[in-house]
Amino acid sequence: MSLPVTAKVPFGGDYNPEQWPEDVWKQDHRLFDSARIDLVTLGVFDWALTQPAEDVYDFSLLDRIVERAAAEGRGICLATGTGAHPAWLATAYPEVTRTDFEGRKRRFGQRHNSCPSSPVYRRLSVELARRVARRYADTPAVVAWHVGNEYGGACYCELCAAGFRVWLRNRYGTLDDLNAAWYTTFWSHTFTDWDQIEPPSALTEHWRGPDHTAFQGITLDYLRFSSDAMLTNFHDEKAAIRESSPTLPVTTNFMGMYRPIDYHRWAAHLDFASWDNYPPDDESAARMALTHDLMRGLKGGQPFWLMEQSPGVTACRDVNPLKRPGLMRLWSWQAVAHGADAVLFFQLRASRGASEKYHGAVIGHAGRSDTRVFREVAELGAELDRLGSASLGARTPARVALLFDWDSWWALEISDGPSRLVRYQEVVLAYHRALWDAGVDLDVVAVTADLSGYDVVVAPALHMLKGDLPQRLEDVAARGGSVLTTYLSGRVDENDQAFLMDVPGPLGQLMGVRVDEWDARGPEVVNPVRLGDGAGQVDVEARLLFELVIPQGAQVVGTYQADFYAGTPAVTRNSFGDGDGWYVAAGLDQEGVSWVVRQVLARHDVLGPYPDVADLESAVRVAPDGSRLLFLLNHRADPVEVTARRGGVDLLTGDRTVTGSTVRLPAYGVVVLKEDW
Ligand code: GLA
Ligand code: ZN
């Protein structure tokens, strides 16, 4: 089971006509036609509509919505509608609402407020999914199932506590093993009965705030459990869908780098990945690229769907800036460049009331087509029509991998010491930024991924080492590849216990170093680091964390310039087999990170075509027929000119480019070059 079968990149998004009178639907569809919208996502929050009482299911309105969309020739991504439970359910069964970390029982309201462990929620959500699938499985317009919506958050109720104990029994088998894994001899935390185990909570002092804990084992496992509990919800709905729809692809919309859910553990259960892209600002091009790559990496490089993005503004932030003219288009093409095989919006028509009435939409409250946003959407629709099937199923030919690991993220950030200021995402973003600037096509993969096809593996803040990963990283270097890792890597095993050996633990051989001590300082403290030597020497700054490194065979590439460890190594390179291991022991600034990354890449022919043109992004996809698509994305507000490395046809304009000619990209411009071979 993989991606939905479509003839081109589906274009459209969330559509909620149950919110407005039927006579508006006709107008909606005429506007969809003019914007070339060919896919609608229906019913995402329809539970109260489709099941108005426990023993009453009523699909009459959804039937009309589905029939209308199908009659208009649109594909349908059909939701099970379980992202928000109805009021009658919360009243009849108070267990379905969540309990928060402070121990407060939530009342009805909001969405994503269902306890994942509630037997009633599980039974009724699964039954709804079953009925939705049974009713619409034979509707040819339905191309995919959309389960729930943006799974996330956590619940700390008694039902979850019981579920947690079951989960722990499955994981550890015996209390002895659990006590050993959690290191409970410390502070007399030893458990002698499973029922003594409580979820982390403000009431038990297990957790002294949302980001750190006094009881690492329990907090880490509760994160794992919560992610798994919601995965079970997804899985159960999917199984109910499968009873009547054996082959139609099933997904749920992810949220990118979202800490509470370990998407790598979910990935195998989805037929295809999809995600909702709401960048925090318009400076986040690299971050979006990373997130797209992370989503593509979930299914081994299989394309994903961009399930949601705003055509204009969002509504949930304190301040909601407008996407500047051209940005929606540019970012849509960026998604395609990184593997999106669908470009969808939230939402097609604006809600008139409630909390998202000011959220951007393709069609605003006035129902006009002569708005800037509608025009830009329609132009993009026309471009995607021109692209046709050219990019469908295309893969990224990456030879560089960036490791991303939720366990490391959690373990690093719940840890007391060395520094609460070191944030996993920020470390990853800095290393990714360096690769992105260099135009490198890369995969963002789980630590369990097959690394044998990569020349370079970058593993920032790889705090936790699991399974045979150290061996597989050594294998990369042994056959001539490069492995880069940083401070706070190789610290703990999968139970979050320190290795009884020198830091960086099982990475020590590969890195050829041992870390003797570490110094964490506030953001105002800078230790200058001198990188390289001779003419290539540069001075950069390091902050937050400074590990004191004693080389064990590694050569010194950069040194601290201040404090009692001035002159000692901050960056090292170790020859290992035919390749090398690079260790960055301090929180280098972006210039420093980029310098090191360029050194690592220098031995490998992996740079993009324009590695020195700032904010001109390049990405390659190779289509199933072997054709190579080069995406050029100008993230600058001014034009840029480059020389074509290879001739080809711009699929958006039909213009031919010959090798050596000038390619001009206007501000926020996009070129999709099908290269000649
Ligand atoms: C999320 C949800 C949508 C909507 C948008 C608004 O992605 O899935 O229902 O609330 O945010 O940005
Ligand atoms: Zn619960």
UniProtKB/TrEMBL annotation:
Swiss-Prot/TrEMBL GO biological process terms: galactose metabolic process
Catalysed reactions listed for this entry: Hydrolysis of terminal non-reducing beta-D-galactose residues in beta-D-galactosides
Domain of life: Bacteria
Domain Glycoside hydrolase family 42 N-terminal: 14-386
Residue numbers binding substrate: 111, 149
Residue ranges of coiled coil: none
This protein's record includes keyword Lyase: no
Ranges for domain Beta-galactosidase trimerisation: 398-606
Name of the protein: Beta-galactosidase
Organism annotation: Micromonospora taraxaci
